[in-house]
Amino acid sequence: MPSPEAPLTGSCACGTVKFRVTAEFLSAGYCHCTRCQRRTGTPWSVNGVVAADAFEVVAGQTSLSTWRPPDGLSKSFCSLCGGHVFAGEPGVSETIVGVRLGALHGDPGISPRWRQWISSAPDWVSIPDDGLPRFAEQRETD
Q1: 20 Cβ partners below 8 Å, 6+ apart?
Q2: Ordered DSSP codes for 54-74
Q3: For the domain 8-30+46-111, what is the CATH code?
Q4: Rounded to whole angstroms, how far apart are CA atoms 88 and 75?
Q5: By the 8 A CB rule, do 96 and 49 touch?
Q6: Is residue 77 classed exposed, middle or buried when 0-12, 13-18 and 19+ CB atoms within 10 A define those classes?
Q7: Which of 2, 38, 74, 133 has its CB surrounded by the most CB atoms within 10 Å?
Q8: Domain-by-domain residue ranges, the chain?
Q9: Across the 142 residues of the chain, what is the mean pLDDT of every consecutive 10-residue run?
Q10: Helix, strand or coil for residue 88?
Q11: Structure pTM?
Q12: Is 128 exposed, middle or buried (0-12, 13-18, 19+ CB in 10 A)?
């Protein structure tokens, strides 16, 4: 489990943007929303949810680009390789950050627990019957 003494590290694809997680993930899951589909180029994204004060960008801050949609969390990615890193505003107390689990360098200590925005899933993809709770739209937060 990530902690201040043993943080979990991660980065974008080219390694320019580096981050660390210093607390356990609160939750994790798959998002099937259209925004995630277009952002990732895949039928869903997999994210871990952590308190914003437990997520820190440690290198490459000037290479981060952030898109702030009119609703939802901001989305940050490396402007050099395009690697998606996180959603939300790190360090803002009483908020969360959505960490792209594929950007982690180790085991997050959590596996996906839910699927949200099933109503937006493309018709041409089969969603695995994995026993996870499914939410037609955004799930209620933990």
Answers
A1: 2, 7, 8, 9, 10, 55, 56, 58
A2: GEEEEE-GGGEEEE--SSS--
A3: 2.170.150.70
A4: 7
A5: yes
A6: buried
A7: 2
A8: 8-30+46-111
A9: 92 97 96 89 93 96 93 91 93 89 96 94 93 90 63
A10: strand
A11: 0.89
A12: exposed
d(CA 94, CA 92): 7
CA distances from 101 to 85, 123, 137 (A): 9, 25, 21
Q: Are 70 and 33 in contact (CB under 8 A)?
A: no
Whether the Cβ atoms of residue 64 and residue 77 lie closer than 8 Å to each other: yes
Cβ–Cβ under 8 Å, residues 33 and 120? yes
Q: In what order do the strands lie in the sheet with 18-21?
A: 8-11, 18-21, 55-59
| Alpha-helical regions (H) of 1-134 | 34-40
pLDDT at 140: 77
Amino acid symbol at 115: R
Please, are residues 101 and 84 in contact by the beta-carbon 8 Å criterion? no
The tokens of 135 are what? 């939410």
One-letter amino acid of 142: D
pLDDT score, position 93: 78
Contact 44, 36 (CB under 8 A): yes
